[in-house]
Amino acid sequence: MEPPKVTGLSPKEGEPGTKVTIRGENLGTSQRDLLSLSICGVECLMYAEWHSPSKIVARCGAVRVPQYGDVIVTTKSGGKGTCTVQFKVSVRCIAVRVPQYGDVIVTTKSGGKGTCTVQFKVSVRCIGLTDESAVWVDESWFGKNRPTSPSQLYPDDPLRLSDESSVERFPTAELLELFPEGSGDILSQENIVESQLYLDIPLRLSDKSSGERFPTTELLELFPEGSGDILSQVFEPTWSQLYMDNPLRLSDESSVERFLTAELLALFPEGSGDILSQVFEPTWYLLENHHGARFDDLKTGLAFLRRKVSTHDEGPLAFMKSNVSSVVSCLEALEALRAALEKDVQALGWDLATPAEQAVQKAREEAFGLFEETLARKEKADATRNALGVLQRYRFLFNLPANIEKNIRKGDYEMVITDYARARSLFHDTEVTVFKRVYQEVEQRIEKFRETLLRKLKEQPSTVDEQKRLVKFLVNLETPSDPAWQCVSHNKSWLLSVLNETKDKHIALASASPETRDPSVFAPAHQDMPCAVKFVVDLTEKFTEHFPNMWRLGQAYLTGQLHIRESSEASDKGFPKHIQFKNMVHEVTVRLCSLVRMSILPETLHSTSVHQLQTLGTWPKCEGLTPWLPYCLRSIRNCFSNLLKLEMPDDMLSTLQQLIFDVKVHAMKTLFSQASQDIQNLDERETWVVEIDDINGGTTQLPLLFENRVVETLQLVRETVLMCGPKETDIFLQINVQAAVKQSSQSLLGAFALALEKMAQAVSNKENDNKLNKQLSPRMTLLNQSMFMDDDNDDPSDDAKCLIILSNCSFTVKSVIPRLQDAFIKYVYPDMQLVIKSSTGRFQEVSAKLFSSYVERKCDPVVGSIEPRMYAGSFNWELEYKSTGVSPYIKQTIMDMIEIHSEVFAVSPPLVSKVLTRVVEAVVEELARLHECVDNYEGNANIQATLNIRALEDALSAFKTSNTNKYFMTCRGKLKPFPNPKDAELVNDLLKTFKNQMWLQLLCFKEEGFVTV
Predict the structure, then answer these.
(1) Which end of the chain is more exposed for a tag (fewer CB within 10 A), N or C?
(2) Where is the IPT/TIG domain (predicted)?
(3) In this predicted model, which residue has the larger pLDDT, 372 or 539?
């Protein structure tokens, strides 16, 4: 245990015997633990009263030297203590009048010797023989050199001589410079030798004049505010010089300096110059005080001393001579008294009082016999009068039970408590039977009143002020238990019951069929909510409403504002109240979070025990919960923000913070998942209404619907889920959440690719059943809708749908995806470059697949019809036919490609070049294969084949590729040069004729013709 330490004193100064209240730390464990208590160095343990480890009451002892001092407490357990304040002790004796300071030291068994940080001041007050004193005063001081006028610290000079030099006395300023830490006070601890320079001289001054010494009245007139006392704060040296008595009227004896004390000690090692000392040396005294006196002066002094001694010897004898008659009269009176006493003893014996006592007793008995009836009636009347007086005097107590009942009915509880406190203070320890019986009845009424207040205290809901008021009443009524803590505990239990009742009610409503539900239970705005959402809203609202009352009551209890008795804390042997209250808050917040998790986040309770899951209830499967998750999150965050207003510690809010974090992550994932499902089903919303754009071609509203749905989801998640309030954690600070949102975003963007694939698959399945058998005119143009319609309805043909899907996919990659990337940046999502890159690759994969399917669907009929058309009409390259123009199969092939051009251009002009390039390559490849099958081209066959190849190459020159050139070279490799120049001219003429005849059709294959057509 630490040493005692005194830090406060009340009062801080006083006289010996003053009762001092000592306050500090570690001042012992009991009265027996105290070993010592010193005030200003004086032991005061016998006056000490131990109250607590921080309070001791003691009386200051008899301090001979007034001073400030510490109060030191020493205990067995803590040892000697310390002190931070000081106590001033007044010295009540004649010779000491200098105030000083001292410590107050406490010593205990447990802590040892203590310390002190304050001091006690000893006040100065001189007392006389008749003054009262709280401490013992040494009477040896009285009668010795008692000051009459100016006080004399040394005894009177018995020789009435002076040894005063002609040198002036030292000024005080010079003495202070010589002895900065000394004092001229003979009783001061700093006094050594310098006191001789200051005290010896003024006490032996003589009046140089021959007149009498100055009267005191004249000195008071001269110095109204001064004093001749050398120790006084208003000391006047002139007063002392004028007042000092020199009965011998001797002049200065010598100018020789005084003997030093050291020299005298060397001459008389065992002597002393003090007249009162037992080792008094006259020679020392004469050398010290009169070493410069003349022999005649010493004779005169001796004569004075003899006269003084003779005066003292004659004093009692002179008193007797002057009072002889009075002494004789006293002796005669005493002799007469002795003679009368002996006479009575002879007559009556030594027991002189017995006859008188018997006579008095007999007279008393006769008097009682004469007045017995009268006295009996008087006693009865007195008893009645006394009873009425008692009833009148104590009517408060006798009327108190009825007054208590009346005031309780009126609700005037303050009056009930006031009356009870008054009765308890007056009659609690009474021994009067009537009073005890009435007081017991009062106690019974008060006990019922306590039960009523406790019952009202448990009635909930209630306001904090009302509960504080009831607790105050119960504490004032001295309820045995701790009503304040009972109130806090009951609030916790009641709040848990409210949460459980809310859970049971909503589970019952969720389990009931829609027909049996009562629509009046919820407001019209909440009737469309899922039951779990209604439960979360209702639960958080009730928690927000009732939890602040519990928190404020707990804080009022812990801060002492709830009228707590001191004994309640001491009697609590369990955990400290602040730990218990913290556990209460943790319990209710955990229950709230667990109930919310069970309703909307059951997968997060995997670590909860089976018993705990049973207490949380079982919720039926809830559909359509995803759109309401932001609403649930808003309710939970509102509850959290209200708790923040209570200034709760962060550790008490951690459970609710984690719930908000988990709900945010779950809501984000669920909203992204729901949006992905909606985007996958966008194929059902396709209207096939095409809008033509020179840059993007023909597109429908489907890519814009996809973009709007994604942007709407990003905005909704940002505004309702990702917004962080005070003390909420940003979910994107965790790596796993960033990975989850990137995965969800990739699924969200990839869902549209799945929708396009579904549409393409539906077109492919339909094509297997319905073949395109209708030739379409290239001149057909329709604005804002497809130009290729089915026979049965207004939908475009399958080929047109395939082109529209390709155009939508291309538009998504070029325009929609970059805008969505900007949206991710705008709404402060993590870096989505990898997600955008992966999604773009997915759309390109779908586009390539659709393009290959469309080209294959368009190439197969054209390529498959070339060979039959080439050999139509039993055509043979070996027969001699005169060439009259380009072969019909070439013209038909060109017309087929014009049809493809028209179909693609009507839907998506940017796809024309890409589609025709693939178709031309397939056609030329087929022609190269057919030419390879012919063994030899001779004559007209060579001319016709050359004309056909040149016509086709010139018509489709805008769509040639390296593969196409290779195939054309293969075809020309089978041909032979013309031996006759006329054959070449014929080919040129026929080719020119072909171009003139089909200039309009061939114009669509020119690059500049894409816009002019």
Answers:
(1) C
(2) 4-86
(3) 539
356 to each of 341, 348, 351, 361, 914, how far by Cα in Å? Answer: 17, 11, 10, 9, 159
Which of 88-97, 750-759, 911-920 bottoms out in mean pLDDT, i.e. has the lowest? 88-97
How confident is the prediction for the chain on average, in pLDDT?
77
Q: Highest mean pLDDT range out of 58-67, 327-336, 622-631?
A: 327-336
Q: What mean pLDDT comes out for the span 232-250?
A: 50
**Rounded Cα gap, residues 617 and 507, in angstroms:** 8
- What confidence tens digit (pLDDT) does each residue in 3-59 have? 999 999 988 888 888 889 999 988 888 888 888 998 888 888 888 999 998 999 998
pLDDT digits (tens, 9 = 90+) for 353-383: 777 788 888 888 888 888 888 888 888 888 8
Tell if the pTM clears 0.85, that is, is over it: no
Asked whether the beta carbons of 853 and 802 are under 8 A apart, the reply is yes
Query: How many residues can be counted in the chain?
Result: 1013
Q: Which residues are within 8 A (CB) of 651 and not within 5 positions of it... i.e. 6 or more apart?
A: none
Rounded to whole angstroms, how far apart are CA atoms 120 and 10? 9
Q: What is the 3-state secondary structure (H, E, C) of 758-797?
A: HHHHHHHHHHHHCCCCCCCCCCCCCCCCCCCECCCCCCEC
What is the maximal distance between C-alpha atoms in the chain? 209
Are the C-beta atoms of residues 24 and 83 closer than 8 Å to each other? yes
| CA–CA gap between residue 870 and residue 945 (Å, rounded) | 11
How many C-alpha atoms does 864 have within 13 Å on its Cβ side?
6
Q: Which residue in this structure is represented by tokens 């000024």? A: 171
153-157, 427-431, 594-598, 930-934: range with lowest mean pLDDT: 153-157
Give 528-532's long-range contacts (Cβ < 8 A, gap of 24+): 529/628, 529/631, 530/622, 530/623, 530/624, 530/625, 530/628, 531/506, 531/619, 531/620, 531/622, 532/506, 532/599, 532/600, 532/619, 532/622, 532/625, 532/632
**Predicted confidence band of residue 686 (pLDDT cuts 50, 70, 90):** confident
CA distance 544 to 642: 7
Q: Using an 8 Å Cβ cutoff, are 447 and 478 in contact? A: no
- Residue 6 pairs in a beta bridge with 24, 83
Q: Is 82 helix (H, G, I), strand (E, B) or coil?
A: strand
Beta strand segments in 704-760, E: none
Interatomic CA distance for residues 583 and 496, integer angstroms: 13
Long-range contacts of 479-485 (CB under 8 A, 24+ apart): 479/450, 479/454, 482/564, 482/565, 482/568, 483/453, 483/454, 483/457, 484/557, 484/562, 484/563, 484/564, 484/568, 485/557, 485/568, 485/577
CA dihedral for 239, 240, 241, 244, sign (positive or negative)? positive
Mutual angle of helices 912-933 and 940-955, in 10-degree steps: 170
Contact (CB, 8 A) for 593 and 657: no
Residue 119 backbone class (left: φ over 0; alpha: ψ -120 to 50; beta: rest): beta
What lies within 8 Å, CB to CB, of 619 at 6+ separation is: 507, 510, 531, 532, 598, 599, 602
Question: Would the pLDDT of 498 be above 90?
Answer: yes
Res 395: pLDDT: 83
3-state secondary structure 429-485: CCCCHHHHHHHHHHHHHHHHHHHHHHHHHCCCCCCHHHHHHHHHHHHHCCCCCCHHH
Banded pLDDT at 985 (limits 50, 70, 90): confident
911: nearest Cα among 860, 954, 854: 854
d(Cα 830, Cα 848) in Å, to the nearest integer?
Answer: 30
| pLDDT of amino acid 587 | 92
Determine the residue type at 997.
Q
